[in-house]
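User: quick one, fold this
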Amino acid sequence: MTLHVGVAGAGIGGLVLAQALRARGARVTVFERDGSAAETAGYRLHLDAPAMAALRRVLPARLVEALRASGVGAEAFTRFAVLDSRGRTRLRLPVDDEGEVLLIGRRALREVLAGGLDGAVRWGDAVTDHSEHPDGVTVRTAGGAEVDVDVLVGADGAGSRTTRRLTGRPAARPAGVTAVAGTVPLDRPAPPFPRTLERGLAFAIGPGGAGVFLAAHLPGPRVAVPGAVPEPPYLVWSVALPDQRWPEELPAASGAELGAIAEAALTGWSPRFRDLVAAAEPGSVAEFPFVLPADPAPWRSDRVTLLGDAVHPVPPTAGAGASTAVADAAGLAEDLLSRPLPEAMAAAQERVLAVAPAVLREALPVLAWQRRLSSPVLRALATGLALPAVGGALALGRRLRGAPLP
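Assistant:
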């Protein structure tokens, strides 16, 4: 009998899982609240060498080549720079990657991964509840449908309803920091930006505990590849502050209002930063509260499991969310197709629960930097001495390729 896998969420991990299973003959139904793959917030993502190796193992070669043609490789990020609030470079760190990597916009990544899944994704119909029984899982959706599957995989993000139903607790807890991010098109006149972005990412620290990350997507000449979603050049900025330093109206603000709030948060900074914030397309500006895993602990089920942010959500300061979701999905697909179901589910649970401690070790020091650098004295020392935590900055540079980062 053909295995029927239900997937809650058509994010990066959910779509990789669906493609991997379908490529090997399994039946898949994906339930997604968005109306299409293009309806997504978020900016550029980094897929590291293990994630790319996992994609090559489980996806059809045509999909991997379409992904590569939609993004840029390691040549786009050879340096990580630390700036002060006046825009002066205080530290340059070389970034050397081993193996294949990919930097790609979230929308492009999602659209490519959704290619060929027509009929398998129920767009606009999210999972609201599920119940297990001896023969499988009954999935209930926002549209009132009930669908029976053999296995349900919660890939529905940090606010996962599947996680709450399975474990009795949320997937995420607040990290105490929120970012506002936006994109500036670079295929038309735009404010000047630091030239260091032509070779990588930049992080700036300044008054009020604010942190600014900047990244430029500057694709070179392209070869047409079927299924690719090439993106025009753009710059991504992200302004992060401790939650208590944002105005109370932030959560209810629209794109244009969010941009104005982010610009006001950079009072005292160089006009170069404020001009970039002001130049963002209003529809691209969004708020991103940072989250941490609530309490990742084992659950008991032979029919339901979790992957990605639904089990180990991490703030973007780890730069690892997309890569870990891809690795989770690839590993689960391989297990489901090669092991008895109880063994496959046990292996998947063990693997995803081991992820959170590792990524948090990289994410939390960066959040700690931001809190400490709200002090003018510590900030002056840090920028004047080119940041004492060079080892931490090197690790950050290896991980943080995709904004929004604070």
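User: anything notable?
Assistant: The two ends are 48 Å apart (CA to CA).
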